[in-house]
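User: Please fill in residues for this 132-position structure.
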């Protein structure tokens, strides 16, 4: 089971899970987990999949995220940092605990799935994922 999520916000804890340098593929995952004294059971992974990543400035762990558009100031900062004009549609801000983390990527999407926590959504690793 895999489905795209409409909501651009989650209270779950996410981690930088996988990065494929050759294709600029980034996976930020909130893995499934058993219930604890401080959190409920999670039966699915929630994956933030980023393709053709050009730049990212992230904390390793993000406690709750909201996917937001960039401000004009953030676009100008990233253009100065990267030394070129950037399409604002390719900039996404992950907000977490009052901080803003920019990602410059061609496409970003939020998915929910019931895969094993070490299965990857990236094509070249798809041979490790079952066909169901």
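Assistant: Residues filled in for all 132 positions:
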């Amino acid at each position: 089971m895999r489905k795209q999520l409409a909501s651009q916000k989650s209270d779950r804890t996410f981690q930088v899970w996988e990065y494929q340098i050759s294709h600029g593929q980034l996976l930020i995952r909130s893995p499934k987990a058993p219930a604890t004294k401080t959190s409920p059971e999670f039966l699915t992974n929630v994956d933030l999949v980023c393709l053709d990543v050009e730049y990212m400035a992230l904390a390793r762990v993000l406690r709750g995220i909201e996917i937001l558009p960039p401000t004009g100031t953030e676009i100008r900062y990233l253009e100065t940092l990267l030394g070129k004009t950037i399409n604002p549609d390719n900039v996404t801000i992950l907000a977490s605990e009052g901080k803003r983390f920019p990602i410059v990527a061609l496409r970003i999407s939020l998915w929910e799935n019931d895969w094993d926590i070490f299965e990857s959504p990236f094509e070249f690793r798809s041979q490790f994922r079952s066909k169901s």
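For context: Residues 2-115 form one domain.
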